[in-house]
Amino acid sequence: QITTLINHKDKPKRSDKTLQAIQRVGQAVNLAVGRFVTVGEAIANENHELKEEMSVACIEARRAGETIAQLTDVASLDHPESDSHITIFTDKTGVVKAARLLLSSVTKVLVLADRIVIKQIITSRNKVLATMEQLEKVSSFQEFVQIFSQFGNEMVEFAHLTGDRQNDLKDEKKKARMAASRAVLEKCTMMLLTASKTCLRHPDCESARINKDGVFHRMRLALEQVIEIVTDSRPNGENEMAPSSIYSGIKEFKNKVEGLRENLYFLSKENLSTMLEVILEHTEDFTDSAYTSHEHREHILELSKQAKMELEQLVSVWMQAQNQKTKDLMEDLEVAILKTCQCMNELKREVHSAATSLAADLLKYHTDHMVLKALKITGVEGNLEAVAEYTCKLSEQKEQLVEMCRLLRHVSGTEPLEITCIHAEDTFQVTGPQIISAAETLALHPSSKIAKENLEVFCEAWESQLSDMSTLLREINDVFEGRRGEKRVYLSLPRPGKHNANLKALKPVKLDTEEQAKIAKLGLELHLLTSDVDSETEKWEDQENEIVQHGQGMSSMAYSMYLFTRGEGLLKTTQDLFHQAEIFATEGTKLASALHAFSDQVHDDDKSLLLLEAEKLISMCKQLQITAKASVQGKSATFTKVDACILKTRNVMTLLCQLLPLGYRLLRKNKAGNGCLKPAPPWREDRVRTGTNAHPPERRAETYGIKSLENHVTSMTFLESK
């Protein structure tokens, strides 16, 4: 709205319609600012340490909004240019100044609000830590029950706050780390309960104490990592060392090599040689591994040797080309670049094959959980010798799975998947010894029901992680085969109420084989549409364009929903699917808003068609949200709702396949010089967003009204400071 005012053309004749439109825009901006400031002032009143700063920023924002309203109060003026009243027509710079002040003050309010959210999370973490210390020291069941009840409520609060924060994170890497830390806390809460009860029942048992201490230690590490992510800091000022993988190394190396086509002097030969050495060093993780097959090991060594030779040849031609830029030399350089890149691609393919085939074999071999079953049986029998034998086997299994995770990390293809591999490795490393200590406790006290329950909990965590590895392996293969792009918009799906002990938990429901068969055709159609949408978005040169980004996000979510129809992917239950449908609909509404903003610049016959299609999109997204939020009970009704959500998602994607080419065509006309667009205004494409909102609005608004504050911001388009 502000950009519309700034960029309006000064015409000699101004119709009543134009004057009224300008006044409406000014009033709308002022009203939006007023609502925004009201929430900001409410936050200030509840947080006295920031009250003064917040109040000043709110006053500045309100003043700027009122100034814009005054300068656009032109509808009643027949001849504004001759009137003494100052308006946008007589003082356009005044509107620009007011817009800049508004942007500055609103940004300040948001920064202060963000500081409050961070403080809330830190305060919540401190409460959890304090209660954990009390839990460690309790000596009676009665005292433990009372304190654990308080601990449960504090964990619920912490889970909600960190879940909201995870959704709002823009950095996919941080989002993945946050998801991993929250997953640890979720699983450890149940472990802490049974491990503590076992320790209270058997206070002199050393293995029970070791088991409990391990849980407390892991929870503290996870809590610390959450704070590191939230505050963007490391303990003792350390810098976070990003783990490098073979994939990322090859990608960077190839970019540098291909860059020689444009510039022969932008890097040194030593730089390239060092990069290759690092990559080949990482391949030693495969060649030195006892679990890599002889065939894979030989191929990797052979390709490593070939890569060195190709680089030597490339450097030789490159150095000659720097001295003498002849046609023949440049052709030789092109051949050397292609051969080097081809060799690196083959190396990447070979390590991927080695890692994924090992993972597939191990997961298949351990799918029966024979060692865990044997530990439970021998533990109940009190057979210490047999328990010792099976704990050795579990340790071997743990080493195999840890090695599998390390190798998979090298070929994961995206940073979020790399982090998921690291999280899986840590889980196997920690859970293995915990199962062993729990089994030893049960063997020492075979009649203890609580010791048996404790072992069950740790075994379930192990089985759950093995199941997650199967999903992770499919995701890695999808990325490698190009079925998924590098932008994984939604790595994990928060589940509202999952952590809340006071709410009746929703029973997770999965589709059975018959239901999957019924919905398979619809799912396949959705899959084909995601490919069409991806093809359309790839045509746009500006991949940062807001329309493109929303389109890519919707395609990624629709693909997850397609995987759900096959019983695969990250959406595990029908509840996950319904939440994903809500987020998908929200993203569609944002896309429609971006299309409206785009249409303001269009002077083409297709403008009315674009607006018509955008309105259809809004209507369809609203219908999808209503369906996704509708309450149902019973298996049949749930399946009907699943079917309706997939169907409506498919319809939205079909419309998207029509909208994206239309927008692209209008953009192309402009570039061809047909002038269908006005000069692009300095609007900010990366507008303030509220993050992926998978929580119901009423829950999200609890956080001191900060979410409603952000919602008001998204209704305004800000002027970028020039």
Automatic annotation (TrEMBL):
Keywords: Cytoplasm. It holds the Pfam family Vinculin. It is found in: Cytoplasm. InterPro entries: Alpha-catenin/vinculin-like_sf, CTNNAL1, Vinculin/catenin. It comes from the Eukaryota. The keyword Cytoplasm applies. GO terms for molecular function: actin filament binding. One of its GO terms (cellular component) is cytoplasm. GO terms for biological process: cell adhesion; Rho protein signal transduction. Belongs to the vinculin/alpha-catenin family. This is Alpha-catulin. It comes from Baryphthengus martii. The gene is Ctnnal1.
